[in-house]
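User: I'm designing a mutation panel for Polysaccharide biosynthesis tyrosine autokinase and want to avoid disrupting the core. Could you give me a predicted structure to guide residue selection? Please restate the sequence first so the numbering is unambiguous.

Assistant: Good idea. Sequence first, for numbering, then the predicted structure tokens:
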Amino acid sequence: MALTPYIHAFRRQWIMLLLSVVLGGGAAAALSYMQTPIYQSDTRLFVSTNGIGSDGNQLNQGSNFTQQRVKSYADIVSSPAVLGPVVAKLGLGESVSDLSKMVSATAAPDTVILEIAVRDSSPNRARDIAKAVGEQFISLVEDIERPPSSAVSPVKISVVEEAEIPQGPVAPRKKFSVSVGLALGLAIGGGIAIARDSFDKTVRSRDAAADLTGSPILGAIPQDTAMHSHSLLLPSEHPTLGAEAFKRLQANIRFLSVDRKIRSLVVTGSVPDEGKTTTAANLAVALAQAGDPTILVDGDLRRGRLSDLFALSRGVGLTSVLLGDVAVSDAAQRWRHDLPLLILPSGPTPPNPVELLGSTRLSDTVDALVDDGFTVIFDSPPLVPVVDAALLAQATDGALLVVRVGKTRSDQIISSVEALRATGSQILGVVANRVQREPGHSYYSDVYGVSGA
């Protein structure tokens, strides 16, 4: 549906949306409560003619006469001739001009009813002024309409509704104002949310990551509290969602190519904190649990973390091997005796990581390990800051690109893909990290790449 993108945008920007609604409603409420309450008192007058008989023509003429007069009378109500005596009678502090802004008169259409309304901050004053205006208006009209030769005015004005003390203010309309504020806040917040979302380049789903790389999703690592707390998922009789996800990842890699088994790969990402080291470590553990002799190599010669993750010494490692100081068999360390898994730390930090990783000694080392029956997994630095991972990918069967859903940006992924392709490296697939279960994805869709219920 056309509304789906907007609904997703509102969900992603819900904090902004909620803040706008709260601010809109709060501002409207504050303004309403800061305003002085205004009260309105009304009086209604009936205009008729004196001395008309029961003849139909006379009655009709009288009715037309009073209706025409009523339209003119509405303008007289707020005139100085009416309001001046009212100011003097009640001792008001307002001028006639100020009082005229408080008084209004309307003639009901096609009737002889004149409605006078007075608004004031005091309900008692509103009643008193409305009553005085009505009385003074009646007196003025009788004087105006009385012929010089007659003692009686042909126009008779009667009060049909006396002015009363209003029970509540007519302004501000607090509930209405708050409702308008909430609606405006929602509209403004919605507009900002849609605008922010349209400019947001963050990858929000595994499908978006696959589209950007042109490569399949080989694994979807869920938001697993156990994994985020400990990083390394130890073998257990009660596997977590994260452990099961890595088992599926290693199975997908195993069956990625029917012609040639993937025996070496580099796990990398675009930027720091995407989970590439955790992914490489747990993938190696999953491969070893499946019975594959595996060696996990820390290819991050700048800030290697595997030795800390597995609680091993990093004094001797990949740097030592590439410099020819020690053989792999002497530098690699066994993590657990019940798993066919060796760990090769990064070793001492060299002054020239790029030269070491671009040397033929690296590819020779990888080939030798593969020939010995190992599956070789490299951890590596991120691709956007440095080229190290692309050089490692050249020496292996390809790269797994880790994308942290909800954090990695599309432009960062594009830069990573370009860096790998510039060295002729193959992108084996994408690992979507910290994903939430999406509609249309199930166990089978994660493993086989098809939709399921």
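For picking mutation sites, this is relevant: Confidence is low (pLDDT under 50) at residues 53-59, 439-453. The CA atoms of residues 235 and 289 lie 8 Å apart.
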